[in-house]
Amino acid sequence: MLASTHPALALILSCTALALPMAGCGGDEEKSTASGGGSSPGSAPADSGGSATDAVKVGMKDIEYVPKEVKVKKGGTITWTNSDTVTHTVTKTGGPGPDFDSGNMEVDATFEQKFTVAGTIDYVCTIHPSQTGKITVE
Question: Of 73, 71, 103, which Cα lies nearest the Cα of 90?
């Protein structure tokens, strides 16, 4: 088999399989847990693509949010998972709606936030100020 003779191809195929979109449920409150939230450490998050969805997953890897820019439907939820080897935060820096701050997220921790006001929201990791992200709520 081609994947068995090319380890890099096998790794890419494995990562692709892990990146398949997973449905998420969110309530009206934010949550921060030490569990993986259904995402295994190091797995790539589902990308929200070009259109807004009800449930978006964002990863933290190599001191970056992955993906850096996402779209979520008004009333939808974003779940961040720290798959990095260092602590991160998810802290709103601007835009409509209530402020949010995950607090320190250790490895494998998750944080959920529901978005009820349309607009563009900027956020940052307060530990790594060059780690920024953008949310468009439609």
Answer: 103
Question: How does pLDDT run across 86-125, given as a tens digit for each residue?
Answer: 999 999 999 999 999 999 999 999 999 999 999 999 999 9
- pTM reported for the whole predicted model: 0.66
What domains can be seen in the chain, in order of their start residue? Answer: 2-137 (2.60.40.420)
